[in-house]
Amino acid sequence: MKAAVAHQFKDPLRIEDVAQPEIRPGTVLVKVAACGVCHTDLHACHGDWPVKPKMPLIPGHEGVGTVVKKADDVTHIDIGDKVGIPWLHSACGHCEHCLQGNENLCPDQQNSGYSVDGSYAEYCLADAHYAIKIPENLDFVAAAPLFCAGVTTYKALKVSDAKPGQWVSIVGVGGLGHLAIQYAKAMGLNVIAVDTGENKLVLAKELGADICIDYENTDPAQHIQAQFGGVQAVICTAASKAAFDSAYQSVKRGGKCVLVGLPNDALPIPIFDTVLKGISVIGSIVGTRQDLIECLEFAASGKVRAIVQTQPLTNINQVFEQMIKSDIQGRIVLTMD
Ligand code: NAD
Ligand code: ZN
Ligand code: ZN
Fold first, then answer.
1. N or C: which terminus of the chain has fewer CB atoms within 10 Å of its end residue's CB?
2. pLDDT (tens digit, 9 = 90+) per residue, 86-103?
3. How far is the CA of 95 from the centre of ligand 1 (A)?
4. Whole-angstrom distance, CA of residue 186 vs CA of residue 145
């Protein structure tokens, strides 16, 4: 099968012919139709994080397609079903976190396109317990970004505990942020969007952001504090430390700063301000299967729509170049044909 393969950190991916994965107990083989390109894939191929991915690696954790083979012990998914394969490739199922329904925190999880091969390929093996069915009325390309960008931002908003009518700030209007704006609006929140450049800010406005701030022209934290006395919650999706510093400063007393983007930096947090203002700083990592089902439902009912451009798998290196330059509107979705 054709796949895009990373061999060494920072080298371009190579389009290669590799062996189709073999079915094992508990798995299904998915003929991949499309796969969104998440900034995490770029971090993986660059070796940005303290925990390194397998090498060689087939990246991709927003893969969607049709089940073409299944192991005999798989009974809840059939051949022909349309499914997605999220970042949470599998979890142990019996640790404290799994038992509490927080399988996204399982210490024994495997991650698609990181610790196991992902969906930048014509076929991908999925753990049947973690492959999630796509609602009938969502096509593959529209569904793909929801399997990471969608569920991650939906979950981060849940974690933020912000209530309808309160203000949240979405920092970064990229693959994640453009969906965060829509989930936030659908949840009845008032939204400030922060990014730079007319393209991103016009998109944010179109997607329902009430206020858009260009961080190159206006200091977001100063503006937000002056106008509102801070936001109840900020969801920081940018892969930039500067964005996190500013996000922290934007929160009001008692508010929450939800960390989502993953630059490989430390975030020195002022203890005095955090204590006296009762600010929470919380990490949020993708979501559970139930979060994913809910996030897909928002899209199936028309409340949220990923903005996508498609590119053939063979163009992946150009797509990464565009991502490095922040030159993507919404999400780029690779197609396998
Ligand atoms: P993206 O490249 O599509 O979007 C990032 C956006 O941030 C761009 O629009 C860019 O212009 C903007 N940005 C950069 N610096 C900024 C700043 N200082 N202020 C405001 N905006 C700024 O990336 P993405 O796919 O949306 O992923 C973003 C980050 O989230 C990555 O680090 C990725 O690894 C991480 N991520 C985390 C999770 C999780 O579960 N926590 C899940 C998926 C992705
Ligand atoms: Zn577990
Ligand atoms: Zn992702």
1. C
2. 999 999 999 999 999 999
3. 30
4. 17
Taking the CA of 159 as reference, the closest ligand is 1
pTM of the predicted structure, to 2 decimals: 0.98
Whose atoms come closest to the Cα of 96: which ligand?
2
Q: For residue 101, count other CB atoms closer than 10 A to its CB.
A: 11
- CB-based contacts of 299: which residues, under 8 Å, 6+ apart? 135, 138, 142, 143, 146, 150, 305, 306
Of 86, 88, 91, the C-alpha closest to 36 is 86
d(CA 152, ligand 3 centre) in Å: 8
- Taking ligand 2, which is a single-atom ion, which protein residues have CB atoms under 5 Å away? 91-92, 95, 98, 106
Q: What domains are defined for the chain?
A: 2-148+287-335 (3.90.180.10), 150-283 (3.40.50.720)
Q: What is the pLDDT of residues 183-239, one digit of tens each?
A: 999 999 999 999 999 999 999 999 999 999 999 999 999 999 999 899 999 999 999
Which residues make beta-bridge pairs with 222?
none
Q: Is the CB of 146 under 6 A from ligand 1?
A: no
Question: Considering only CA atoms, which residue is closest to atom 8 of ligand 1?
Answer: 174
